[in-house]
């Protein structure tokens, strides 16, 4: 009697089932379980994903088994607006090619292993355009040695292009035909030349070419009418004065220098013409002391915004965070710092600070899937802190704007709110805090940061505690960045957070607003001395970033932030004192 043949059951894809059943517009695939399922599917996504014609957003992140999206993507997802395939193993090219995707607006292929994007194995055909509505393209952190020459024709409406951290030696001339391109990031490549054709980008506002192999900057760059932010640090320029300006002056002065021909290059000014221009500029600086033109004035402007790092050896009261090994399998990476000198009292300063944090969560934190930021009022924290994990039944927290609750009940409450919100607004998606609940799926324990009084002050990636809430009188902040992905991501995001905080302080200092009266409770409390807001303080006094040690339970050092290699900020208006 022949044995019965039992068909092997297909790998379960509950996320796809849910989207299909409820006709949702978003699909997110991430987490440890994804690796095995993709590997079983041959290193690609299952065909079922490409049979969801209503899908607007597809995100697949952090899967080292994903080598190619799989056939049928363009044909099966005609309404796709956002495609995020970040941190996978795509490469060395795309097979089959990605497009055409007529509705796609955002494409993120960063952090993969792409080496080339040739015709037939790239983004799609140029005629007709494969990506006619694409506005944002992120190809950073790959291994690309060249960009496709047909990129401008393939995505004619491109506004933001990020190709940083590749191996590019040149930018194709065709790239400078993109009439809507406003942001071009190509730092950390091997670029040897910037073409004068860059002047053909009328909408360009931000250009970052730091850490390349440029020896000259074309004078035509000054013809970009909307250009406001430029970064050429880390390039060995022939014009040493220009190199000095690049490392210390505002973009306005650099562009003006290029506009008049620079020195030793540029638009070919004669020596006499250069001297005449130099004399003219000196006269103008003398007549308008506050014009901001000229190298010395710009350096003075830079010195108005200083960040000083206070080392552990100089700070007997430095904060320490102990890491309990139980958090290793939940959310293992944490980086912390203390920032002193924030001024959140005037006008909308606090609102701007909170909006900035929200934007970082949306952008570089990748909707909290890559990392989560938490900010606390330092004076409300008692150290040392312990970063660990507790069961959902045991973990208790007073969430922002809520009463004390167990983590299990909080998550359930948020899930019910999310479902109710979806029904009321008749949407497929949810907003706010509810979007991050899936990050806890399958977790037996939840991560938490606990102070010396055994009070949970943070429950990443969901919420902070009301106890340590930032108020208008807060000037000294404890910052934490946690991630399930990598320690370097935590450090990079902390760098960006501190830079943004410094920029907010600069804005508050330069735009004298009336003191905010919205937080009456907070305004009734006298805050600590603030380097930026106290009228008797020096105007150019630095903000302080205190090092925070992260150690294991035996006290052995795991992370020290900021270390010598951290806070390598290239913004021209920030000076780091180490």
From TrEMBL:
Keyword line: Coiled coil, Leucine-rich repeat, Repeat
GO biological process terms held by the UniProt record: phenylalanyl-tRNA aminoacylation
Stretches of the chain forming a coiled coil according to its record: 404-431
Domain B3/B4 tRNA-binding: 330-506
Keyword Glycoprotein in annotation: no
Domain of life where this protein originates: Eukaryota
Protein name, as recorded: B3/B4 tRNA-binding domain-containing protein
Species assigned in the record: Vombatus ursinus (Common wombat)
